[in-house]
Amino acid sequence: MIHAIAEGILLNEILVGEVMTQGLALVPVRADLHEALETMRAGALRRLIVKGKDGRLAGILSLDANIRTLAADIFSLAGVIRSERERENAEDD
After folding, report:
1. Which of 28, 40, 92 lies closest to 70 in space, CA to CA?
2. For residues 30 and 38, what is the distance between their CA atoms, to the nearest angstrom?
3. Where are the domains of the chain?
4. Least enclosed by CB within 10 Å: which of 3, 24, 38, 65?
5. In terms of CATH, what superfamily is 2-92?
6. Sheet bearing 26-28, strands edge to edge
């Protein structure tokens, strides 16, 4: 699409089907996060379509949102480890 704009082609002359991503990856709504992240990794994808029980679109899973969530979880775990070490050090004194 950027090439088309650079060549002076108007956006209303470009069909969505010409620039859309093809070969979409889907995961069922009941998939666990590990399965979804493995699908993303294997396909070098940043987003997955989440399919509902009825086969219809349930949502879109974003790698960026998951990275933020996982980072927050890791930060929380680091806090637990830090607190535990401080408690153990206080008991040793």
Report:
1. 40
2. 15
3. 2-92
4. 3
5. CBS-domain (3.10.580.10)
6. 26-28, 47-51, 57-62
Element (H, E) at 16: helix 16-19
CB-CB neighbours of 44 under 10 Å: 6
Q: 61 forms bridges with which residues in the sheet? A: 48
pLDDT tens, position by position, for the chain (93 residues)?
666 667 777 778 888 888 787 778 999 999 998 899 999 999 999 999 999 999 999 999 998 888 888 888 899 999 999 999 998 888 887
Number of C-beta neighbours around residue 51 at 10 A: 17
pTM higher than 0.70 for the full model?
Answer: no
State how far the Cα of 55 lies from the Cα of 47, in Å rounded to an integer: 18
